[in-house]
Structures are given as structure tokens and as C-alpha cells.
Amino acid sequence: MPDAVPSDLRPVPPDDLHRFTMALCAAMGSGPEEARIVADHLVLANLSGHDSHGVGMLPTYHASWKAGALVPNRAGRTTVEDGPILAVDGEMGYGQVIALKATERAIAIARRHGVCVLTVANAHHIGRIGTYSEAAVAAGLVSVQFCNVLSTQAHVAAHGSRDARLGTNPVSVGVPAVADADPFLLDMATSAAAYGKIRVAHNKGVAVAPGLIIDADGRDTTRTEAIFGEPRGALLPMAGHKGYGLAVAAELLAGALSGQGTMATRETGPGVVNGLFAVLVDPSRLPGGAALGGETAALSDYLRGAPRRDPAEAVLVAGDPERATRRDRAAALPVDAGTLRQLEETADALGVAPTWTRSP
Ligand code: NAD
């Protein structure tokens, strides 16, 4: 669900945020291609309605960079390249660059072998993982992605516990459709809400919906201070034990199998470390491949046409909200005052001029 529209938002043209992001990355040492990939990724996240993974991450990236936990201009080191298998170590480079470049190589491998199993270890925050499914789907491939999140502070409670033990470990599935229809693009945190969405609510000073977070005593709450104050509570897993199970699967596939390690075994330092496990499949190699694009379109239409429970709420399929928000936000991105202030502070620290009129 895209973030709610806040009352204190300022409209900023996407191109201005893109230029600003490139300038900040350059000030931290990135070359032009890296700065562009990071800016493309963050601004598209905002355009898609995922402000939690947009330019509002830049102060966090700045803190990681200062701590030496985010290293500019890393391309990723190949650790295994063996037939349909590709493994990359991100060496704590910008995750958006490491994961995109690894995905581009995985696409070429999947075209050659029919499938590619990709792991990425030790990338700094790779952002919205749907980005990598979208790249695979644009190349006509099916994409299944699991990502684990390592940081000094776990955010998500183990099901039945009041203690945070896991990251928000996102999962994505992408399936192409025929040319004039929309692909299926599922991209979701396995927590009841992405951590960044709680941060966005906290910045806005608004409560979150019930059922997303608990306080340090394990009691349900809607107050974001339970996550950003002390003693710290936790995010709940999505759908109870089921989301918890998916999060553990992500930890094992993207954390353990990539060689990176999991929250149980890996010594965590500053910054957000992401591992990725992806399977890219060329559908034309499988019996249903020729009809898959039509099936995706037909199933989506069939579901969208189902009678509504609430006349005001359309029946959608995954990917629809992001596509609609991209259309709505094409001219201006609504940025809340708290996020703008944090961006201005980061700009000042790096000697970069904001591309908007400063907050009063
Ligand atoms: P979300 O809950 O907004 O959406 C999840 C999925 O549900 C999307 O595929 C969306 O298209 C679909 N959806 C939304 N509303 C729908 C509806 N009414 N009907 C049908 N489908 C619908 O997303 P989220 O779980 O808050 O995750 C946000 C982003 O955070 C994702 O891009 C994810 O990759 C990212 N993330 C990244 C990390 C990381 O460390 N890199 C960690 C966690 C999350």
C-alpha cells in the first residue's frame, strides 16, 4: 500500500530530487554512473509510492558512508560463475549498483541456460527489491527474489516473541505479461509493514495502523516511539507465523547460502547489509512458457473484475498500486517536512546545495 498523503508535504519535481541525489552521491565520492543508478533507484521508489525506500534513505547512506560501511565505486566481486550459477560479493558497495549489475549478468545467464541462480552477499542496502524483478521481467524472464537484512538492530519479532530478531527480509516475484498488459510484480517486506514506513510515519509525527508494531513488553501499539525510542519494541511479522516463515527462508537463502551469514551468526557493524537469492527463469523453456504472458494478463483481468467488498476500493493485483502512483506523481513528489529537513542537514554536511527552496 503506498504511503498515506501527509498534511505537511511539499511538492518537489522528481528531476530536482534526481539531481540532488546525484550531487550527494558525487560529494561522497561516487562516479557519475553510480550516482545515476542510485538516483534512478531512489527517485523511482518515491514515484512508485515507496517513500520508505526513496531519497529519504540518503541520510542513512551518509551515516553508513561516514562509518566506512558504505564504500563508493564498488562493482561487486564474482565469487562463483559456473554454468547457471552466479555468486557476487558486494564488498559493501552501493546495493543498488551491485544488485542491478549482478541482475544484468544473471539475465544473460538465464537466456543462455534457461535459468540462473544468483546470490549476492555483503551489499549495502539494495533498496526496493522489485527493481530487480522489474529488470528481469523487462527481459522476458520470471523472477523470484529473497533478500535478508542485517543490521546492528534487528527490527522484526520472531513470531510469538516480544524481541526483535530478524530484518524485514523482503520477497519479490515477477512474471511477464503480453505486450499490452501489466506484468505481475509482487514486492513486499515480510514484516507487517516495511521498517521505512514506520520511519516515514515517525517523521510525520503520525501513528501507524494497529497490528504493525509492539512495544518492548510485547503489547500492541500504534505509537512509533515504541520503535524509535527506548526501550525498543519490534515490528510484527506479516501474517503471523506465515510471514515469519518466509522471513526465516530469506535469512537462510539470501544470508546463509550466499555465504554472508545470518542474524544468528554474522557479526553486524554499522550500515545495512543485504544478501540476495534470486532465481531467474526463461519461461520459453517450460511447457507453459508460450502462453504465460497471456495467462498473466487473463488472470489479472479476471481478478480485477471480481466484485468489490467495498465499492470505493478496487480489486487490484500486485504491481497495480505502484503503476498508478507513478502516473499520479510524475510531475511532483510529495516530500514531508521531516524528510526534507533531514535531507537539508545531509546536504549541509556535504557542502551540497538543495535543489528546492529551504524549509523555513
Ligand atoms: P507494500 O505493502 O506497499 O506492497 C506489497 C505488495 O503488495 C506490492 O507488490 C504491491 O503491488 C502489492 N499490493 C499493495 N496493495 C495491494 C492491493 N490492494 N491489492 C493487491 N496487491 C497490492 O510494500 P512493503 O511490504 O511495505 O514493502 C515496500 C518496499 O520495501 C518494497 O519495495 C521492498 O522491496 C522494500 N524493502 C526493502 C528492504 C531492504 O532491506 N532492501 C527491506 C524491506 C522492504
SSE blueprint and pairings:
Blueprint: E1 9-12, H1 14-27, H2 32-47, H3 58-66, E2 77-82, E3 85-89, H4 95-113, E4 115-124, H5 130-138, E5 142-150, E6 156-157, E7 164-166, E8 171-175, E9 184-188, H6 195-204, E10 213-214, E11 220-221, H7 225-228, E12 234-235, H8 241-256, E13 273-281, H9 289-304, H10 320-328, E14 333-336, H11 337-350
Parallel strand pairs: 3-4
Antiparallel strand pairs: 1-14, 2-3, 4-13, 5-8, 5-13, 6-7, 8-9, 10-11, 10-12
Residues 1, 50, 52-53, 125-130, 147, 149, 168, 170, 185-189, 193-194, 197, 274, 316-319, 321-322 line the site of nicotinamide-adenine-dinucleotide.
List the main descriptive attributes of the protein structure presented here.
7-stranded mixed β-sheet, alpha+beta, single chain, Ribosomal Protein S8, Chain: A, domain 1, disordered N terminus, 3-stranded antiparallel β-sheet, binds nicotinamide-adenine-dinucleotide, 360 residues, globular, 14 strands
